[in-house]
């Protein structure tokens, strides 16, 4: 019997059905254009692009132009790639254009789908970004689909790491740009570290189509992209704190062994305040609760963790004057790996070895926040609907399930649950053997590289030939994955491995042709192709007879989405296929949820060794368990996002200001406003409102005016005059400093002055912002630990981050004003030296701004080794024309980078 819900769905259709239906008229219109476009010449297709562009410029909306544009693109793909887009592919394209996530199964041809909205939206001339998960795919898709765009008179670019500047510039200027999420994020950060507009690569964030969108916006969403560099030497700070820590007693702190967190009690805080003030670390009159003390609190926390949570010869060893970490699981040393956030330095201080400089963040952004920059965002993937709420809530993206071109013929079996892992693996090996014997290709999914390796050893023991994939070598992997559909192939892969490449039964013709031609370049390509196509048809037939691709999963993942992704690799384009999950009560997920109940059931059934239970009820309860974990993970992501938002809002303000300054021809008015504000603050401080003359600090004001404004004015005399009040003093200071700066401008000449003002503004913003993000990082690590009062860490963080931001703006104004008041024309010698210094700094920035590989949560602590001048292995890939990072002053190509 149908429930009310299902009954209603039958009558009214689901919301998804209605969305699909709504695209029908558009699809019909596109189809109506088919004949007209078939008849056009190649030049006509290009001319049509021009006319569409003009019509858009004249006011027709992209929605109006959609049917014609899609029809033009469809025809271009037919001519260049020999692919005639299915109606469902057009539908997918429409949903993307409308700013949705199009859920389309593997093998439905998403690469082609993206060309339609990309072409349509590029008619605006504003550039479209297509985002892929790895560089190999970006390049492959750009080359492959580039033919379609070229036939339409549009340019295609591809962006990749360490790309020569000119090439990267062209790629971003192209109508359609393919790039990975990493490279886009890094270019965004690097762009916002430049001091000249013309050095920026990205021209705004207009429209992005994100392929494998769930992987990028959910799995990797929180991964921050970080550009880092060494900080100044702060050994003294670490050593001083290190001397205080052993003085603490048990009343001063608590330790949570499980989370490895430490918290100071109120007593502890008081004790620390005394000692740190005495040691000159905490400025007089400051407490540890002030926002300005965030960094100190952070380092004290790290000092305590270093002493109480890290044990020599267990967690690390000291060798050759260095602290070397030990891998908790394998017991192996991990030379070169360093704990982040000053923790490694704290341990170095404790062990009294040399303290290596800390690597600090110069700029960072999360994918979440990067992708929210786009005016319009869209995405495609085989698996999004389980996370539809999250996509909507965080990105405002709706998920639409696009029907498959052909009905799915894959058989999805109920999970088979064994009591122990041993029984499960024995059964898996038998299952693989059975399939393998009849030639059915098997894709075995695992949850980790280690498990892949264990299984591989079992198969080797049985003499079953197989390939192992682990999501590290993208290009090679794409080949192996493409081969996974061959007759009798057995492929073991972690869930994420080879994403983006579809598995075709009998293997991939294009790859086979390419391989054959690489092996024998003399061969006739047409003959080779004909031969391979014939062989392939035969092999494909046999694979289909053997049942198509068998996806055998060895565990359920925490998220249903990842399981669906794996399942979906079989049964593409209506192919036959089979999927089955082999589980045991010892699996992680089973242990966390419901295994007791299951165990009871299994006992009642009186199961024998090696037997499994398979029942829809088991699937249901597992899926419920997964939904619970998904919900919890979403909550964690949401909470973290709220923290990120605070920094993000501030970053947007700063980057926006930077950009305005770069765009302006003259920033004198900004500098002047800053100076006047500094004067107001100064007067307020030394001549406070509602006070009498004898309470004023005329001397202090005199010194401050000298220091900050560079003017020597008789403040002490002024205050003795009758009728002089704060306002008069303020006006006189403004007058004096305006004149002082005007004289300076005359000395330099207006042209020079403008550029000096701009440079000083930008440099100061950058250095202040870097200090600020470091403080925020520290603040974030301490708010969670605060033991005092039951305050909400997020609120604390917000309030203090805001105060710190206000502080940043104040000190920015002061520093800019002061620096400008101190400039003086340089002698020729000095000028040369300065230019050289600026160039060296630029080059250094370039070489530091190497992409830090994004780190997963688990790896976040053990950061990549920092940049160390004396250690070439820490340099990343310096540009050949950059100064050598060793500090020799020679270009890299003439020094450490010499090709001998
Ligand atoms: P997905 O990303 O959806 O898994 P791909 O874009 O990798 O799929 O395409 C899978 C395969 O389907 C490719 O080999 C492609 O050539 C083929 N394909 C895509 N669209 C069509 C079409 N309209 N007709 C025939 N083959 C197509």
TrEMBL record:
Residues 5-614 form the SecA family profile domain. Residues 427-630 form the Helicase C-terminal domain. ATP binds at residues 89, 107-111, 502. GO terms for molecular function: ATP binding; metal ion binding; protein-exporting ATPase activity. PANTHER family: CHLOROPLAST PROTEIN-TRANSPORTING ATPASE, SECA INNER MEMBRANE COMPONENT OF SEC PROTEIN SECRETION SYSTEM. Residues 843-879 are annotated as: Disordered. It is a peripheral membrane protein. It comes from the Bacteria. One of its GO terms (biological process) is protein import. Its cofactor is Zn(2+). Part of the Sec protein translocase complex. Interacts with the SecYEG preprotein conducting channel. Has a central role in coupling the hydrolysis of ATP to the transfer of proteins into and across the cell membrane, serving both as a receptor for the preprotein-SecB complex and as an ATP-driven molecular motor driving the stepwise translocation of polypeptide chains across the membrane. Pfam families: P-loop_SecA, SEC-C, SecA_DEAD, SecA_PP_bind, SecA_SW. Residues 848-866 have a biased composition (Low complexity). It is found in: Cell membrane; Cytoplasm. The keyword Zinc applies. Monomer and homodimer. Part of the essential Sec protein translocation apparatus which comprises SecA, SecYEG and auxiliary proteins SecDF-YajC and YidC. The gene is secA. Belongs to the SecA family. Its EC number is 7.4.2.8. This is Protein translocase subunit SecA. Keywords: ATP-binding, Cell inner membrane, Cell membrane, Cytoplasm, Membrane, Metal-binding, Nucleotide-binding, Protein transport, Translocase, Translocation, Transport, Zinc. PROSITE patterns: HELICASE_ATP_BIND_1 (PS51192), HELICASE_CTER (PS51194), SECA (PS01312), SECA_MOTOR_DEAD (PS51196). Transmembrane segments: none annotated. The keyword Lipoprotein does not apply. The lineage of its organism: Bacteria, Pseudomonadati, Pseudomonadota, Alphaproteobacteria, Rhodobacterales. It catalyses: ATP + H2O + cellular proteinSide 1 = ADP + phosphate + cellular proteinSide 2. Residues 91-249 form the Helicase ATP-binding domain. One of its GO terms (cellular component) is plasma membrane.
């Amino acid at each position: 019997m149908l429930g009310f819900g299902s009954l209603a769905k039958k009558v009214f259709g689901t919301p998804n059905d209605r969305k699909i239906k709504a695209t029908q008229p558009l699809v019909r219109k596109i189809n109506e254009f088919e004949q007209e476009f078939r008849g056009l010449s190649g030049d006509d297709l290009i001319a049509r692009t021009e006319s569409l562009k003009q019509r858009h410029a004249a006011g027709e909306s992209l929605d109006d132009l959609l049917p014609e544009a899609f029809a033009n693109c469809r025809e271009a793909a037919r001519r260049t790639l020999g692919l005639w887009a299915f109606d469902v592919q057009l539908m997918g394209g429409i949903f993307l254009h409308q700013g949705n996530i199009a859920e389309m199964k593997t093998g439905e041809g998403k690469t082609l789908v993206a060309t339609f909205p990309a072409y349509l939206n590029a008619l605006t001339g504003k550039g479209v970004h297509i985002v892929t998960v790895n560089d190999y795919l970006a390049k492959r898709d750009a080359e492959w689909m580039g033919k379609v765009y070229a036939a339409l008179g549009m340019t295609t670019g591809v962006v990749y790491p360490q790309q020569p500047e000119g090439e990267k510039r062209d790629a971003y200027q192209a109508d359609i740009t393919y790039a990975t999420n990493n490279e886009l994020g890094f270019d965004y950060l690097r762009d916002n570290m430049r001091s000249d507009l013309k050095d920026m690569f990205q021209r705004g964030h207009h429209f992005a189509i994100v392929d494998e969108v769930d992987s990028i916006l959910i799995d990797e969403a929180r991964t921050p992209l970080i550009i880092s560099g060494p900080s100044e030497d702060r050994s003294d700070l670490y050593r001083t704190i290190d001397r205080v820590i052993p003085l603490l007693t048990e009343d001063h702190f608590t330790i949570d062994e499980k989370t490895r967190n430490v918290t100071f009690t109120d007593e502890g805080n008081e004790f620390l305040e005394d000692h740190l003030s005495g040691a000159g670390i905490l400025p007089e009159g400051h407490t540890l609760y002030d926002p300005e003390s965030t960094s100190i609190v952070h380092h004290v926390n790290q000092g305590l963790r270093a002493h109480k949570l890290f044990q020599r010869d267990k967690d690390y060893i000291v060798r050759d004057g260095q602290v070397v970490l030990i891998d908790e699981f394998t017991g192996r040393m991990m030379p070169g790996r360093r704990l982040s956030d000053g923790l490694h330095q704290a341990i170095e201080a404790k062990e009294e070895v040399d303290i290596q400089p800390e690597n600090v963040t110069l700029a960072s952004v999360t994918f979440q926040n990067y992708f929210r920059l786009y005016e319009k965002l869209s995405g495609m993937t085989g698996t999004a609907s389980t996370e539809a709420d999250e996509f909507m809530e965080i990105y405002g993206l709706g998920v639409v399930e696009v029907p498959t071109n052909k009905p799915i013929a894959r058989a999805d079996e109920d999970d088979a649950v064994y009591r122990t892992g041993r029984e499960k693996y024995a059964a898996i090996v038998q299952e693989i053997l059975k399939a393998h014997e009849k030639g059915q290709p098997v894709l075995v999914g695992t949850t980790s590289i280690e498990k892949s390796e264990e299984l591989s050893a079992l198969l080797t023991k049985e003499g079953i030939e197989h390939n192992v994939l682990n999501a590290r070598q993208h290009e090679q992997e794409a080949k192996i994955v493409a081969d996974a559909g061959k007759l009798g192939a057995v492929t073991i892969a972690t869930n994420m491995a080879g994403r983006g490449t579809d598995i075709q039964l009998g293997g991939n013709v294009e790859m086979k042709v390419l391989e054959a031609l690489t092996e024998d370049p003399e061969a006739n390509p047409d003959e080779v192709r004909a031969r391979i196509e014939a062989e392939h048809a035969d092999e494909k037939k046999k694979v289909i007879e053997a049942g198509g691709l068998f996806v055998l999963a060895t565990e359920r993942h925490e998220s249903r989405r990842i399981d669906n992704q794996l399942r979906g690799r079989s049964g593409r384009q209506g192919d036959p296929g089979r999927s089955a999950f082999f589980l045991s009560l010892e699996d992680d997920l089973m242990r966390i949820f419901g295994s007791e109940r299951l165990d009871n059931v299994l006992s009642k059934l009186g199961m024998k060794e090696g037997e499994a239970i398979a029942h829809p009820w088991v699937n249901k309860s597992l899926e419920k368990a997964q939904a619970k974990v998904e919900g919890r993970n979403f909550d964690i992501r949401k909470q973290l996002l709220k923290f990120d938002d605070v920094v993000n809002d501030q970053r947007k303000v700063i980057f926006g200001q930077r950009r305005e300054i770069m765009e302006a021809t003259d920033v004198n008015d900004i500098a002047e406003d800053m100076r006047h504000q500094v004067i107001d603050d100064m007067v307020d401080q030394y001549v406070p409102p509602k006070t009498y003359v004898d309470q004023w600090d005329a001397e202090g004001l005199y010194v401050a005016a000298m220091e900050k404004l560079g003017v020597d004015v008789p403040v002490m005399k002024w205050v003795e005059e009758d009728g002089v009040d704060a306002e008069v003093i303020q006006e006189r200071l403004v007058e004096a400093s305006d004149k002082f700066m005007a004289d300076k401008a005359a000395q330099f000449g207006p042209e020079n002055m403008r550029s000096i003002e701009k440079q000083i503004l930008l440099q100061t913003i950058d250095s202040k912002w870097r200090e600020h993000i470091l403080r925020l990082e520290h603040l974030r690590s301490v708010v969670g630990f605060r033991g005092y009062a039951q305050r909400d860490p997020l609120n604390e963080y917000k309030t203090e981050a805001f105060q710190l931001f206000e502080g940043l703006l104040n000190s920015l104004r002061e520093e800019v004003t002061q620096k400008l008041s101190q400039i003086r024309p340089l002698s020729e010698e000095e000028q040369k030296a300065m230019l050289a210094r600026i160039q060296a700094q630029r080059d250094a920035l370039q070489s530091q701004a190497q992409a830090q590989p994004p780190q997963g949560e688990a790896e976040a602590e053990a950061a990549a080794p920092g940049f160390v001048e004396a250690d070439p292995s820490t340099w990343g890939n310096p540009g050949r024309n950059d100064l050598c990072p060793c500090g020799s002053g020679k270009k890299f190509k003439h020094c450490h980078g010499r090709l001998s």
